[in-house]
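Researcher: I'd like a structural prediction for the single chain below. Treat it as a standalone chain; there are no partners to consider.
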Amino acid sequence: MSAEATNPAPSRRRGRPRIDLRRLGRAALLGPGGRDRLPDAISHVADAHRAHHPDADLVVLHRAYVLAESSHRGQFRKSGEPYITHPLAVTLILAELGAETTTLTASLLHDTVEDTDLTLDQVREQFGDEVCYLVDGVTKLEKVDYGAAAEPETFRKMLVATGNDVRVMSIKLADRLHNMRTLGVMRPEKQARIAKVTRDVLIPLAERLGVQALKTELEDLVFAILHPAEYEQTRALIADNATAGDALAAIADDVRTVLREAGITAEVLVRPRHFVSVHRVRLKRGELRGTDFGRLLVLVGEDADCYGVLGELHTCFTPVISEFKDFIAAPKFNLYQSLHTAVASPDGAVAEVLIRTHQMHKVAEAGVVALGNPYAPVEGAEDGEDGLRADPTRPGWLSRLLEWQQATPDPDTFWTSLRADLAQDGEITVFRPDGGTLALPGGATCVDAAYAQYGEAAHACVGARVNGRLTSLGTVLSDGDTVQLLLAEPDASQDAASGPSPDWLDHASTPAARIAITGWLAAHPEAAKAPATGLRPPTAGPSYEGAPAEPDEGAPAGPRAPSPAAANAVVADLPDAAVRLARCCTPVPPDTVTGFAVRGGNVTVHRAECPAVRRMESLGRAPVAVRWGDASECRVTLVAESFGRPRLLADLTEAIATAGAAIVSATVEPPSEQRVRHTYTLQLPDAALLPVLMRAMRDVAGVYDVSRAQHAARAH
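Model: Treating it as a single chain, here is the predicted structure.
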């Protein structure tokens, strides 16, 4: 069975019959027609083209057909038809989508340089630089020259050409669609290989360029080849529910009545789902109802009418609010615009509804093809500073792809990275603090944002703020987030040791980030062996990393001797009571404090805002009046929150020592997502030094917060 025979004809093309290859083959063998008329074999292309471009000049198409037919004469496809039927079919596909004349001209000639004696110079001489560029862009590289790398390098060449002119990929997609339609003459193993490349590369590209008409048919053709059993089940399911459209047709009549009474001019169509769509809905919902086999499409004249239709539907029917999406106010990254909703009929049947203008529908079907020639100068438009017109078809994903492919000279790495990149679903836009934006694939993290914004300078990234909140580099971003990336201050002495750790690769989803990180790790093999946080002990003095923490206040232990500093600094209104400072909040002058009597006749002093105070009071414990004495020396526990980097512990202890504090104890908790918590119990000669000390610790690169300890304490 041929792929063409297994593919359901999309309903949107019922108005124009599919190309008859045998008839075209006979017409091609008869040669060009007379001087005053188009050849019979290309007349259908001309009709389709004129339907979208009534004033199009068909002379150039005539010349391109004559050259293509004479160049391919004597060549035949594996199916037996003259080879000219293939470029004709590809050109018809593009003509039906509304492609402009230059694209159709290049489409007729797209295989001549690859498969005939015609040269690029001859194409340029007869049709100009634009057509020559498009033909060159889709011309495959020779296996004789590139061997196994021919396919990935051909796609690299095509994508680079697409970066300069998106019409290159439009021709390639139409070319692959016709080849997939006629793939049944190939060996099964070759069918499967071509179908897999189509699934992994061409279908995602069609989605990203917004060419849904090609994407959906390619999906069905691939489905039939790679999943024949599921395809047959779906085909049988659709056949068994041939009257399923009646349920949607009845709702469509009700919608027409509602809109007519509201005075809204609209076209309401029943749009059957294609095979893969039915298969996905069945997997999601289980047993299907009649309304699940299609959707309603409402077409109106103006953007405002879309919202008018939405209001009427939600007023006169029961809306399914969870199904509402507004892709008009926030278009998809591939130019798609539409309102999506769902309404329930009185019998409980739910119908999905798409609401868009006629122009939106044209773009939804044809994507970038519907833009016509995006490179033609616009009358009255001002050029950019470089004298070049801005390219509206150069989306963020394509720019990112063109950047990272330059860093992957190896064909296998490029091919693997390309498939991984295209496998990412959707695109998000995040905002920088300066008001700029970053376009990232869905699922991107702060690591990806760092490399998208700073390139290799992102090696020095130590953290990020997302929507004003500090977060780890592995945080997954959402559309509309504001991201501030924090870079460490450059330090020449640490260049060899500073940079990404291997676990960054776990958080990097874009090829650009993964390639940059992998390259840095390869150049710094010592980094791959270091702990993920890069913590190192100080170069001089005792190491406090891993030092035991003092027990929390209220831990099950015997009475502890009060520190001299506490005894001298705090006076309790309880005769002969020993005074000690609570380790849960470590009060220092001039904090407002209160005390509570504990076991052994001691008094524990807490800051007034300590949670333990409220807990004691709720238990009915009477507070003991305490006040600060004359001694200025104090002990305090500080918590430093930081992003892991080499020499961080050494820099922090140096800052503490420089501020005049003595470290009593210190702990460093195990790192979590690049973040490290340091807890220091410090002896200060004067409580007035505390703000200076905390400020000095915050100034250490990588430290984003320093606070007084605030641990939970049990009631005594």
